[in-house]
Amino acid sequence: MRGWWQEITGLVLPVDCAGCGRPRTELCERCRCRLGGAATARRVRPSPEPSGLPPVWAAGTYEDEVRAVLLAHKERGALGLAAPLGAALAGAVLAAVLSGAGVRPVLLVPVPSARRTVAQRGHDPTARIARAAARELRRRGLPARTVPALRQRRPVADQSGLTAARRLANLAGAVAAAPGQAALLALAPVVLVDDLMTTGASLTVSAQAVAVAGGQVAGAAVVAAPRDA
């Protein structure tokens, strides 16, 4: 219900650009371009780089307008931003796929969010962006399918404020393939997707979970990563 109400509200009430605040547009063209895409996607590596982290590609840089847009979608429920964020993510997926010698078709597997967090927000930001990215990839001729195959199987502490090592320890053993999903993960190479990469801990444990389930991770793609990654 909350998600439905947020979408209707966005249609009938005046909004300002989520990135720069320009009036009467949910996302201005300048901020849309700042999100990036295939042309701007870059290979990113956190420091320190966790062992087992797959190659990660980011469409944009997590700062200024890009940061504001991601937070508006994730924390303030600006659901209309899923489409442009998904388009940016699709560009990063294309970079990841092309770096892997043209893997196709591709399964987009979102990094799982905690159930309580999804309930508090009223939506699953990563899954929503992943679905938008898959639609954009299909529009561009790349067979793509979103498979929410992973889940958190135990509670984890809030990751904010934790060091890279503590994030890995916090997530160790917490992510696994959902029941009945192992067969799907074996159908095609997997690209893990998320809205943001900071330390790489979530992508690392997600890659491990896919491998345990018998899937092959071709790479990972995110909307944004820090400039120094």
Automatic annotation (TrEMBL):
Protein name: ComF family protein
Originating organism: Actinacidiphila polyblastidii
Highest taxon listed in the record's lineage: Bacteria
Gene3D superfamilies named in the record: 3.40.50.2020
SUPFAM superfamilies, alphabetized: PRTase-like
